[in-house]
Design a protein that fits this description.
This protein is of the alpha/beta class and about 290 residues long. Helix content is about 30%, strand content about 30%. Strand 10, helix 3 and strand 11 form a beta-alpha-beta unit.
């Protein structure tokens, strides 16, 4: 049996990112990628279960630069292949197109020898991680869900959002739920992030984290916590939510909410200043905390 702080389940992406000024970069992406680097570089023992067409993508190589990561690669008929076109300098508005998606994850694909405190479900579009994987995961660990993989759907080459039909059935299994402001509105109908967090908690999720370009909010059913984003530039905007969530849930294994939130927000603020996944250290994050928080 291999013991880990976190097991991150989700496909890597073959990303083409086109910036508002036309700059084009091809890169490995995906929630599992940004989350894996963030958790590992904070010092957490991390397992990743990425899925792709392994004839096209070397999954072990994708994580080779991250310490503390053990890769359990899974083969899929196709990889997740996408293009993101950003329309504004702050990268808040983008158009995403999808060329292909992975074969859905199945419970029997998850290695029995993995013993992790948290299972972080980090798919990219609806269908990647079927609803039934959530109660299955809840029997093995604390469940963390990035709700994008329940709301975003690849349709006709594009990306569209639909409400999550099974949300009220599934949220009670979820220890940590991550949304962004737009996703929270789709789920609850509320533009007010605090109100949306209260509704999501009332439906059963225990700890709600909502990201926004100005701050990160956490609600545990008793108290509302926020911490401001302090990034000095946005060149590394891609992967913001994944970095925040992975940092937060792993810090929560040993820290209270305010401490974990401050660490995660400093982590993502620092990460957003450099393109790619977070490749600094815990000491870098602590220095950033001292300087800006």
């Amino acid at each position: 049996m291999s013991t880990f702080h976190t097991l991150i389940i989700g496909e890597t992406a073959q990303d083409t990112n086109v910036d508002f000024d036309g700059t084009t970069v091809q890169a490995v992406g995906g929630a599992v990628y940004y989350s894996g680097f963030a958790a590992a570089n904070l010092g957490h023992k991390t397992a990743v279960l990425p899925k792709a067409d392994t004839a096209q993508t070397d999954l072990a190589a994708a994580f080779a630069a991250a310490p503390n990561v053990t890769v359990f690669p899974l083969h899929s008929t196709h990889s997740f292949v996408t293009k993101n076109v950003y329309h504004t300098p702050d990268r808040e508005r983008r158009t995403s197109t999808v060329d292909s998606v992975i074969d859905p994850y199945r419970p029997e694909e998850i290695p029995e020898e993995i013993d992790a405190k948290i299972w972080h479900l980090a798919g990219l579009v609806g269908g990647d991680i079927p609803d039934e994987l959530i109660p299955f995961a809840a029997k093995r660990a604390m469940v963390a869900v990035d709700v994008q993989c329940m709301l975003r759907w690849a349709e006709n080459g594009g990306m569209v959002y639909h409400d999550w039909a099974a949300k009220k059935e599934m949220l009670p299994y979820i220890r940590f739920l991550k949304t962004d402001a737009a996703e929270a509105e789709i789920l609850t109908g509320f533009t007010d992030r605090a109100e949306a967090a209260r509704v999501l908690h009332s439906w059963g999720a225990q700890e709600i984290l909502i990201t926004h370009n100005t701050e990160v909010l956490v609600y545990d059913g008793r108290e509302m916590f926020t911490c401001p984003i302090k990034a000095r530039n946005l060149s590394g905007r891609t992967g913001r939510g994944d970095t925040t969530f992975a940092g937060y849930i792993n810090e929560r294994l040993t820290q209270d909410i305010p401490t974990a939130l401050r660490t995660a927000t400093a982590l993502v603020s620092l990460k957003m200043e450099t393109p790619g996944p977070f490749q600094g250290t815990r000491a870098d994050v602590e220095d950033y905390l001292k300087a800006f928080y």
